[in-house]
Write a structure and sequence with these properties.
Layout (H helix, E strand, L loop, with lengths): L2 E4 L5 H12 L3 E6 L14 E5 L5 H14 L4 E4 L5 E3 L6 H29 L2 E6 L12 H21 L4 E8 L6 H4 L1 E3 L5 H15 L5 H13 L6 E4 L1 H13 L1 H11 L3
Parallel strand pairs: 1-2, 1-4, 2-3, 4-6, 5-8, 6-7, 7-9
Helix pairs in contact: 1-7, 2-3, 3-4, 8-9
Length: 265
């Protein structure tokens, strides 16, 4: 029986992925900040709940050690994260630091904790949730996009470090996901950017962004974990595939200009 270790498994894509892998006969280590509040995954056999706040280095090391002390882990799915929306001018320093700590530094710390273990067992796979926002651009989410672009670049660089030890690394880049993402998203307002915020909402709601069920995106995570392909990035969701195709076909500069025109800039 193979085992997947998942961060951010309390809701949305993390929980959907835990349930899907469980249904496929995998053992699941589902981590979250408050596992004592979980009322669904704790009822499934071969699902183990462990506490994990990816901003807490001590807890990361403790939880990873607890997992590998009694279970063979085959896949680590770095999924914990949240969105930060608004103009850079509107963000507090704390908001910027927290976004980077959670979305980027947390992933690096979890991966670093697992690398010696994967090296010792001579196999392993990291999968990280990035975003179509880590491959394309859009207004008013510069720090969020920066973390997701960074994760894509980091993953590509890490391939070279990990390959000699038979350790794989992949990313799953979704578009919009139907989940509690909107509930936990932070929004920083600034009156000077209200017209742009309104226009962005209009453009996205007119079909540019399509919210896909997390269960559909979870299928792409499962594909990445099981297809055995030497492939880095898996685009997930109709809107993500459409935007990525547009960027590839037109080129980055033309895509940027097109997005600006949509926003009437």
């Amino acid at each position: 029986m193979k085992t997947i270790f998942i961060t951010g498994a309390s809701a949305g894509l993390g929980k959907a992925t835990a349930k899907l892998f469980h249904s496929k006969g995998w053992r699941v280590i589902a981590t979250m900040r408050n596992p004592e509040k979980e009322t669904e995954l704790n009822k499934l056999s071969n699902v183990i709940l462990l506490p994990l706040d990816v901003n807490n280095l001590e807890q990361i090391n403790k939880t990873v050690q607890a997992a590998i002390d009694f279970i063979t882990v085959d896949v680590v799915f770095n999924n914990a994260g949240y969105g930060l929306v608004g103009a850079l001018e509107a963000y507090s320093d704390e908001q910027m630091v927290q976004q980077i700590e959670t979305n980027l530094t947390g992933v690096l710390r979890v991966a670093k904790a697992f690398i010696p273990y994967f090296k010792a067992q001579k196999h392993g796979l990291f999968i990280t949730t990035t975003s179509i926002c880590g491959l394309t651009s859009n207004p008013l989410s510069s720090v969020y996009n920066a973390t997701k672009w960074a994760l894509e670049g980091w993953s590509e660089c890490m391939h070279y470090e990990l390959a000699p030890f038979n350790i794989g690394i992949k990313t799953v880049a979704p578009g919009g996901i139907k989940s509690n993402y909107m509930n936990v998203m932070q929004v920083a307002s600034h009156k000077d950017y209200e017209p742009l915020m309104a226009k962005m909402g209009e453009v996205f709601s007119n079909g540019m962004l399509v919210f896909t069920d997390p269960e559909i995106i979870a299928q792409t995570v499962y594909e990445a974990a099981t297809d055995g392909k030497n492939k880095l990035t898996y685009i997930a969701g109709e809107d993500a595939e459409r935007m990525m195709s547009e960027r590839k076909n037109s080129g980055p500069e033309a895509f940027r200009i097109s997005m600006a025109k949509r926003m009437q800039l």
